[in-house]
Fold these 2 entries.
Entry 1:
Amino acid sequence: MSGMDWIVPVILTVITAATPLVFAGIGELITEKSGVLNLGVEGMMVVGAVTAFVTATVTGSYILAVLAAALSGAFMAFLFGILTLSLMANQVATGLALTLFGVGLSALIGQDFVGVPVDAIAKLNIPGLSDLPVVGPIIFGQDPLVYLSLVIVALVSWFLYKTKAGLILRAVGDSHDAAHSIGYSVIGIRYLAVMFGGAMSGIGGAYLSLAYTPMWAENMTAGRGWIALALIVFATWKPGLVLIGAYMFGGITILQLHAQAAGLDLPSQILSMLPYVATVVVLVLISKDESRIRKHAPACIGKIFHPAA
Amino acid sequence: MVYLTPLLALLLTVLTSTIVFSLLGVNPLEALENFFIKPIDNQYGATELLVKATPLILCAIGLSVGFRANVWNIGAEGQLTMGAIIGGGVFIYLHDVESVLLLPAMILMGAAGGALWAAIPAFLKTRFNANEILTSLMLVYVAILVLSLLVHGPWRDPDGFNFPESRTFSESATMPILMEGTRLHFGTIIALLAVFGTWIMLSKTLVGFQVKVIGAAPKAGSYAGFSQKKIIWFCLLFGGAMAGLAGVSEVSGPVGQLLPSISPGYGFTAIIVAFLGRLHPVGIIFAGLLMALTYLGGETAQINLGLPVAVTGVFQGMVLFYLLACDVLVNYRFKMVRFGKAAS
Amino acid sequence: MKFKSMISLASAVAVAGSLFAGIASAEDKVGFVYVGPVGDHGWTYRHDIGRQAVQKALGDKVKTTFVESVKEGPDSERVIRQMAADGHKVIFTTSFGFMNPTLKVAKQFPNVKFEHATGYKRSKNVSTYSGRFYEGRYVVGKIAGKMTKTNVIGYVGSFPIPEVVRGINATALAAKSVNPDIQIKVAWVNTWYDPGKEGDAAKALIDQGADIILQHTDSPAPLQVAESRGVWAVGQASDMHHFAPKAQLTAIIDNWDGYYVARTKAALDGSWKSADTWAGLKTGMVELSKYNDAIPADVVKLAEETRKGIIDGSVKPFAGPFNKQDGTEAVAAGKELDDGTLLGMDWYVEGVQGKLPK
């Protein structure tokens, strides 16, 4: 291996590994900002993955497939909303039940699609630009969903901190009673936030089954929904940090595989621990400033809202 | 009303599953029979239900104390694994010791192992303010990899052709069987003692009172002079110890050795069990039994009706949705009482 | 849908199921216990193909049942026991971790025949069986040694157990025999099944210079990566060429059909005896899928000679002389490793990089 040739493919690999986490993480961030904790990310992702795959193989349209994945994720989230927002069920338990439900449902939907191949979503190819060394493939050679993930992170950041709607959402998450007394529909806003979270998880799943590893296999999310949940805590509920966290987690995962392939003399289990340990260590480093975290963490998270109370 | 909620949930489940199973081409009555009755219509099945519910109840009872005080330990799976490692490790190093003290030592060390693993999030939370949701979850993956490292390496059975499993536990390192011919073991007694002890602790002791106050009104807790940090430490160590007990009672009970995978996600399922049981010790027993029953029922339905495991997942999700949704009745009652008080 | 025949199945089973063990019914039941979902497209998927072969071959004489995604540990013992109590005649338990549970249940049900895959403990009513997959890997190693331009073979490993290590070593020995400069780089993903991670490991190996990707994990993700990166790969457990039409050199196929049909028949006609079966290319338990058209004729010829040689016994993958990774002699000339050593193999041969945990 000569020079810096290896850097470009490594960066490309990291981006691919991180993108599903970015989608699911940013969606759940909005959900949590509204004061709702939905632990069903894994279930919504896996349903999104199968919906996208089935839609793509049946219709041949990737745009439809991604839309369908978003819809299916939003529908799962809607179920969660009915239970936790309208019927006031416990959010933590309902989220976990949603994951059980989603893993089962996706397997049922996908049982005739195991072993069916599908082409990966095409990567952007701008003649001239995409062929530039280093920056070409990294900046101009991604698939459309990668760009979408970045745009959404930017939009969410803008929405939360620069728009009135974002302010209202944060108000609902920080003090639902106050938001209610001013006259905002706490439940309605939370429904929207929860369904946005579901839609993003669905697209994250679609990225798995259409771009990352273009196939359908049961349980193919393999725990990524949990990592996405952890990343929001890691990001102290700030959109930009979700992106950084996902890329860091993906980066360390890829680097430890490289270390193994290069013959590093350490048991693979120790190397496999690195992404998890590193996430904890970085969280510890950035958590010292308690007031900063309190500023961004939604105060009402997980608490049931009684509108009439 | 509260006592009617499970009945209502059951009714709704029966109605919906009639539709769902009919759509799948399965006789709904038969499906329901396979899920809820067949698995426990004989003595052996009933004991298996207890065997399956034991680790769920142990983990859930530990977590419930933390959840009451808003300590979000979601890493019971890792604490369970560490309990199995440390408790099982006692046997690995003392495998030729035949002593009545071996099993008690393993159980104690198992609880200590789980508590030790939970002490990390407790330390990071109280010292560095690091959120325990993330730290406890990440430590799950680390604990599983530690177990993998040990059983693929130094703790392999020397006569096991280098396959990834430890030597099988000797008689004196195995949980006593409570009923001849079944797998019902002493771990179930430990679980019941833990539930009883937790009940006493919550209702009769100062620390239990503090847990409840801090959970309901953190500010009131601090005015009363309760140390938030002490409660965080207590909740995590207690939850870790209970999960550790679950781990060691599994490996020295029905597993009988250390394997790369010793738990099908008991630590995560226990979170559902804790809330399904409304964080109440008695509720947790029922919730644990019900959850265990859906797993057993799923296996029976697969064998007898050929329903794929995916249907079990959907069915479990549905049952849980209904049970959780019926909380609405409890919540409304709660509100009506408050309203009534306000009016009077 | 799978469910169409369920009603008739259900009624048949309801009769038999409510009774206890040993009561004869018109159909004999044959049970399968799987560690993964039948939709994993890997290990469990192939066992389920074998189950379907039994159903097809024996028609309405048997009723095959299965339980999927059974976790190793206490759950497996309960499932196996329930099948035995339910009157199954033969029960196939298809993961190494089911070994001790299978033996425990077998003790309580002496009249039921048990077949445990990949284990080494047997009893009067417990047989063991596994494939000599390393034979397939040896053929693949020859092809890989000839086809590589970078002299680096990348290997996506699951867990460092003897089965996987044996496959890596067989590949290395074969590749070195045709290309002494060969290096094998291994990336362990510590899971049998995580398409994303398997693919990432393949990418890392390619970025480290590998131009052939082999795998001992369940999903076709590494092949897809090879296809998109323009390097070679070899399918695992089943033919995966539709996932990588250009990249798949061949695939090592687990074919349990013949064994499952034969053992079921034996159990039904009373000729079943406890045995240890470790079959390979010869009996067809291990197969190679069609060679890629892009492989030059002389390489195909070499591969076929190797395959046929293994079948007729003239080619022995683990015949000496060869060295361990550290350069010490593993087997002297004129000798070969015995099955016991192969079963517990926990060291690399020369040419493999990295260290195994001890």
Entry 2:
Amino acid sequence: MSTLTKFSAIPYTGPAPTNREPYVPANVAQTDARGEEIAAKISNNALQQERGQDMPSFSVDRNAIVDVLTSLRNSGFTIPLDLFGVDYPRRSGGRFDVVYQLYSPQANERVRLKVRVAEDESIPSSVGVFKGYDWYERETFDMFGVKFEGHPNLRRILCHEMFQGHALRKDYDPAQRWLLTEQGVAKLLPKIDPKFENVDTDFERVTLNLGPSHPATHGTLRIVVTLDGETIIGADTEIGYLHRCFEKMAETHTYQQVIPFTDRLNYCSAIINNVGYCMTIEKMLGIEAPARAQHIRLMLSEFMRISDHIICIGTNLVDMGALTNFWYLFQPREEILGLVESCCGARLLPTYTRVGGMAVDAPADFLANSQRLVNMLPKFIDDVEKLIMKNRIFLDRVIGVCPISQEDALSYGFTGPCLRATGVPYDVRKASPYLGYETYDWDVPIADGGDTYARFLVRLEEMRQSLRILQQAIDRGLPPGPVIVDNPYVALPPKERVYNEMESLIYHFKLIMHGIQPPVGEAYFQVEGGNGELGFYVVSDGTKNPYRVRVRPPCFPIFEAYPQMITGQTIPDAIAGLGSLNIIAGELDH
Amino acid sequence: MPAQKIEHPDSIIPRKAGVAPGEGPEKGLITLPGETSREAEDLAGGTYLTTKLDTMVNWARGNSLWPLPFGTACCAIEFMSMVSSHYDVARFGAEVVRFSPRQADLMIVAGTIVDKMGPVLKKIYDQMPEPKYVLAMGACATSGGFYRVYHVMQGIDEVIPVDIWVPGCPPTPDGLMYGILKLKDKIERGEIKRG
Amino acid sequence: MAITRIAPGVVKVERTPLSLSDRLYLPQVIKGMLITLRHLLKNLFNIKGLPIISYPEVKRVYSERFRGRHILTTREDGTTRCVACFMCSTACPAECITIEAGEDERTREKFPARYDIDLLRCIFCGYCVDACPEDAIYMTRDYEMAIDTRARAVVGLRDLVVPPNFPVGPMGWRPYYGEMKKQGWAGGTGLGQPIRTAPFEDDSKPNPDVYRGDQ
């Protein structure tokens, strides 16, 4: 056993919060009406509409889930966004909620299905409907112990092999660690693709392990490939080497204290995570950040998106041997981090936003420095484009490498640049705008083919589009006013008042000790992260700690498709393809 | 001497002429534990008696640290910043980043080490040839940071010895560089007896 | 890459076919080399324009909001401003602050008998500073921390408390919400007192306006 001391989360000991009203989303009548339409279209007896939710919501009998998912898929809900569990240990009639969320790109709407399941019951596996649900079901099994009948490979995914128990169950002690020894590490043997099974070549078949500490896997991914000569004929991946238990930590910390944890999900674009999480809580509280805070959030989000793409392109080119681009790209990136540091005092993981606004106002020279950066950046992007985009050595290594078809990408649940590289123009900023993205003039870049080259093109163009947004944002200037809402139940009062007034001091103490207490209910909110739709699903029970925080990590389905993408390719191609997917382990393993 | 601010045409990052680490105006006022006591030790005649050859060897080792970045998470990104253009660790002979443990002598553990990664870390440390040094970078690698939870190792000293600890979440590239300089200093003094 | 608009708000990035000279490898390789050469020459004749910060000879000046190592401020009589209210340790997501409260015999005031910060656990989020109602904990711009042993990383009152005349120069993250306060001195906000204006550069000396000697 470990040397870890007993977990010392502070249990809620104060008076019972009085604010235990149910959460009522905005325009709930419309959502309910839309839900009725969908239910009429599906017309399945096992479908029961749940009213008063923030998106059309249904509870489904567990035996009918495959039918319902199939008919939803056929009526346009083609992207499987998420599948996760929620544990209600004291509830009668099924302890776990297994929640499915789907998205329809045509109708631009989301739908949520809930299946109640008891500890000893199992759910039919829906891998046959959506390929992407393979890993999600494994994760739900790992975290909650919910069994999925007919799942081809139902084993742990995030926790290690010698782990016992199911970590996200409410009765699991957060500090209970299990030791993994070298003997306990599972041997992986990839399944050979049926296409290659009967192909007889002169070569011996070799199974090769890449990672987790392999320069090409960026540290935290393990890929096992079976090679026939140079060709990969079967591949398997293992993740969880950076499983930092974000969701369990969120349950044991207050709403404000979760913000630093969200930083560390996608650490290349941390502010976008902050914004996504804070806006989810703001949605539950029914408040909106002041205009000035929204403007700062938007500008820093776009800078962070550029920085995220810079890391992706830069390191990917390093993997392919083009080191120069790395130096050229990291120079402006360092300047972007300098801007972030001047705003909030930390370079990479800023913890800048708060629920209801920003921690502090942007510095006086924020706009001037942003303008300098926006002037500086195109030069570097152009240099990189000139260096590689007509260089045949580079093109030969990326064109047609690790492709994925549009159909497969949708079925896996791709979002973000990887989906847009297959030709689907889905971007959360356009589809359901937040922070005022709809008022800016910009375009969603798409490309054809879904190969590594297409992902390159999309990312390069996205950086330029972000610069366009930034230029407009700078021209508009920062709106005057405060940067955080004036609500003592959400935001700390100004320090001057805390020192001078008794009432503000009491609010200050109360907010630190008792935290933010959103109304009871559940909400989902999504932003466009560096890699795609970054969503947070939060269940509140009215206390200071979230009952459940689920992050929808965009990398997760993308890396799930990786074995399929590299089958039939060679190892150098696989490495070039892996870099272009921009797998951020912190987000992948949450 | 008052610090001079340096204007840079292409950068929004302000900078100034500094002084050696541990001697800046900021440092004179706040000291970390250990720094003062070590100075006292030095005044008392040092703790080790080294021969000239040892001094030479240690000097060479300290100036050619080839790092193996065992980077798993956010700190690895800051490590990348440290080797890239703004900080450029090549100035201290540590630019040869080797991913093969056989060719490296400084392991920089950058990022959270979870229980699943523990055996891997141990194995890679064992594969490194002597002399080998370990720098634990950032809150997660040094102590688990704020992840006191079921799947995170509470500091890499559970599995491997550590020579220097750099706090920060993540440490800034210059903070990490300070750690490397301090380790170099330690090696040159002969305080780490290995190999 | 060529860009065509295919729908409102959607552009398609097309692959451009390579021309004959591009397909011959060498012209494009040479073009790429020229770009590198341009950078080389630009840097060679403009050493001052290099982006490098030659730490430790040149140091980066982090902003006044930088979240570095903590300090505990003192009142003018030399006692710590901290009243051991446990706000900072409650707000800390890493739970790295350990406080034991004591009571002053003379003034009957609470004070921290023990105040430890585990620097290795600390994630430098600044929540302790935000949570402090007494203006007692600040963060400095000091990032030069490297520690020999794990035990030494736990810093106590001896290492955290600064004298009352501590200058504003090395200060980083300070408590402010809303309007940013440009000036101030680390001994507290100085409520009811005029706040001294001091530029960063020459502020390493004790401040005569604030320092009152041994009174």
